[in-house]
Amino acid sequence: MTDENTQHAEAMRALKAEREELMKTKTLEKGLLLVHTGDGKGKSSAGFGMVARSLGWGMQVGVVQFIKGKWKTGERLFFSRFPDQVRYRVMGEGFTWDTQDRERDIAAAKAAWEESKAMIADPTLDFVLLDEINIALRYDYLDIDEVVAVLKARPNDKHVCLTGRNAKPQLLEIADLVTEMTLVKHPFEQGFKAQRGVEF
């Protein structure tokens, strides 16, 4: 057992030295553009996890929800407890199959985008979450070229996270981080309805 422990300690010392050398090359600091996409669950959850992390550091946060309607969600209930740190706007009319009105969906998406642009430009906000904006872009409710231009021109220290399936290639190209959630298994496929605290 002693030999195994000794070998492990030596391997970890070597790994630590290698890691310290690598970290010396990581010197850039700026606001990041992050995209959470893919068919798997967890895109919005990851974005809201970043909101919580930002609050932990005393940062100011803006949230715009593009699709989810006025129904109650755990994240909305929770972050409403931080009115001095979180500007939270639910702008969607609900899922597209619920509204069944393209013009209404486009109008809602455009209103949400106007709010998003204001938050991105606001120097008092450190982090902005654009929840489900990828869905609005997928259905061409917004002009992708305008969205890309605004994101590229954002203040240098502004972090922005975009969530939703089917992120456009133009967003993936300009993003600093892209995470694709992969669906392996989902309770919905087994007949479960959405569970409070897990799905919403």
CATH-defined fold name: Rossmann fold
Radius of gyration: 20 Å
Ranges where pLDDT stays below 50 over 5 or more residues in a row are: none
Beta percentage is 5-15%
Can you give the helix content as a percent range? 40-55%
Query: What structural category characterises the helix and strand content?
Result: alpha/beta
- How many domain modules? 1
Q: Give the overall shape.
A: globular
- Summed over residues and divided by their number, the pLDDT gives a mean of 91
In CATH terms, the superfamily is P-loop containing nucleotide triphosphate hydrolases
Question: What is the CATH architecture descriptor?
Answer: 3-Layer(aba) Sandwich
Q: Give the class-level CATH name.
A: Alpha Beta
Q: Reading side by side through the largest sheet, how are the strands ordered?
A: 3-2-4-5-1-6
Number of helical stretches of at least 4 residues: 8
| Span of the ends, CA to CA | 48 Å
- DSSP strand tally: 6
Oligomerization category of the chains in this entry: single chain
Strand count, sense and closure of the main sheet? Answer: 6 strands, parallel
Name the helix and strand elements from N-terminus to C-terminus, one letter apiece: HEHEHEHHEHHEHE
